[in-house]
Design a protein that fits this description.
single chain, about 170 residues, mainly alpha, 3-stranded antiparallel sheet, 3 strands, about 70% helix
Length: about 170
């Protein structure tokens, strides 16, 4: 809690509204990451490990999921996926199986324990996120999502520009 209070006070120097908006957004992001990480720690998971489990959970009744496919979906290197899979395997949430079609490829399967974990975390996450967002009315939440989506599109457009063109040469 002390860290969250420090985060909320650390940017008092900005007064211009655009800059202030960015800083408030960043403070909120930092605070959200802090409580989000704590949520997943209750299950001995990280957000990234949980995302792997969700990918496997959603596709576990369809076709096999290769480690490289998970990495592509999550924009992670094979080395990162290997380490995360090692940890999930130690927790008995996933298992590795050699592909019957190509023995060089490794299929990752979610276990029954992994399925149960995902279902529990999803149920708890719904309750937790409702509480987290409870200071906002439903209409504010909808507007907030609309604003965030608009901001994301603006950020992607800005990234196409040259920084020197944006701030000008000095």
């Amino acid at each position: 809690m002390e860290r969250l209070e420090k985060l909320s006070e650390s940017y008092d120097w900005i007064e211009q509204i655009a800059g202030r908006t960015v800083i408030e957004f960043l403070k909120t992001k930092d605070m959200l990451e802090e409580v989000h990480d704590r949520f997943f720690e209750q299950y001995d998971l990280s957000n990234t490990k949980f995302n792997i489990l969700v990918i496997l959970y959603r596709g576990h009744k369809e076709e096999p999921m290769y480690m490289s496919q998970i990495g592509e979906r999550m924009l992670l290197s094979n080395a990162n996926i290997t380490g995360l899979t090692d940890r999930l395997e130690k927790q008995a949430f996933v298992r590795r199986v050699r592909s019957s079609e190509d023995r060089r490829k490794i299929v990752i399967e979610i276990t029954k324990k992994g399925v149960q974990c995902v279902e529990k975390v999803i149920d708890d996450y719904i309750v937790w996120s409702e509480r987290l967002m409870s200071p906002l009315e439903i209409s504010e939440k909808k507007k907030f999502v609309e604003i965030l989506t608009k901001l994301q599109l603006g950020i992607m457009e800005m990234e196409k520009e040259n920084l020197e063109d944006i701030i000008g040469r000095r």
